Amino acid sequence: MASRLYRDDAIVLRTQDLGEADRIVTLYSKNHGKIRAVAKGVRKTSSRFGARLEPFQRVDVQCHRGRSLDTVSQVVTITAYAEQIAGDYARYTAAAAMGELVERLTNEGFDPRSAHYMMLVGALHALVNSGRPPVLVLDAFLLRSIAMAGWRPELRNCAVCGAEGPHQAFDVSQGGVVCRECRRLGAVAARPSVTEHMIFLLAGDWDEALATDPAAQAEAGRLIARILSYHLERPLAALELVDRSIESAPALKENA
Predict the structure, then answer these.
(1) Model confidence, pTM
(2) What is the C-alpha separation between 178 and 165, in angstroms, rounded?
(3) Rounded to the nearest 5 degrees, what angle is found at the Cα of 224, between the Cα atoms of 218 and 229?
């Protein structure tokens, strides 16, 4: 008979109070994908591991399999990201959007486990340690997650006819940039600097990404959010809270 105990490396995505002293903890793990487990007694001041199960902590967790929810039996902190993220609005909202996307993707059946898990770990590490703007770390994570889920946008050549770019419009339903001849109702204006910035984010070319003008960075962020909304069939709620701090960035304009 297989053991009902298992152990994994995981990121705490969110928690929900249960009863007077317990919590339901949602984790994204390296080898088991999304885990929902009850952490008993963690809200008591005497709890051995309550602080280790705060959102965005990276932990070594042991769980016992249950019928509907598993049960946390041991937790050891690997990296304490929570304090540095929770105390900073820009970092917190970026991390919240990352966590929401991970949950949404796993709910849709997308679960590459190790690769996407390590990408999330890298993004949280960058939020805390890289000194890069949190919103750009977020956009890079969102865009790479889009690509990993099989929705990688075409950013160079026309997504319809293959005509070599640069092009001035983006059609989410067609999967990328479109040329003048293939542009149709529903496409949005997208300057080459915007799609180039997205190419830099996908490639991890941070020197070029950071050098992109702020208005193009903000416009790219909105376009990434639009791509996600299309494929997930509704927007990420946490993106509404992200502060891009660029008042002058042009809005996406659809064909008239």
Answers:
(1) 0.90
(2) 9
(3) 130
